[in-house]
Here is the input.
Amino acid sequence: MQLKERYHPYPVLAPYTDDYLNSEFRIESLEDKTMGKEYLFEIELNIKNPGLENLIKENKAEYVIHVECSKTSFREVFTSDFSKIEISIDSFSLDGKVEFSPFIIAKENILNYKDGSFDPIFDGFSFNINKGQYLAIGNRAIISIIKDKDDLKQLSSIIRIAQVADLEKETKVNLEGDRIQIMVSNESYEMYTYASRNHNRLRILHSMIVLPALIYVLYELKEDSGNDFEQYSDRRWFQALEVRMKELGINLDSNLFSAKSPYELAQILLDYPTKDALDKIYEADQEEN
Here is the structure.
């Protein structure tokens, strides 16, 4: 649940406002403790504001976690009077990206609300807060639920070569589904199918077709890295890349592309196919001679 930045008619503690000084509200930790048929998540909230903490202790406000999974259309709200929260959800309700959005909500009407941490611009003012209104909004935390993890261990499971009738010479890449779709013309697809029957040619094909496509994918992720990969993080191919990178000791995060270029990463992920392709071509040439 991604809330757009908005103005409120009263002070709200949020990442996009300056209404409070020296105050903070966020998810400190989110752990997946699943062991059985249900998903179990342990969430620890960090609140640094005595006034809001007192409202919760006085039962005038409560912590709220909004959980949303776009792939399954699951949406549910969980409430608590404590900063450590356990959430249990049926396993069939979640798949792919799951978002946890924290709030502090008024449990009743609060009259003449003031806080010692208000920005000085609010000096001398008090506010009437209605039941159900936001008092604090924290940043989202995201976790990926990966089912059939064995299917994600091989990149080949999420890359598909597809024939498209209206293509001629060009190749296109589609990232909108659960697989990376490399689209080629009917003629190119027939040649690819024929060539791939020979196992020795696979590394050559990887270097010619898959490597450029993967470079494109990584450039797209680089562009989206500032948004925590919001556009692609629920795609199965993204999860497979994440699994593969973890196996290689690489973290798929916003800092990744400052250390390595998409070109370097693509070669690492495919285990340097260009060198193998050249070796295969050389070996075939030697056999002919």
Remarks:
- The longest helix spans residues 202-224.
- The CA atoms of residues 62 and 81 lie 5 Å apart.
- The longest strand covers residues 38-48.
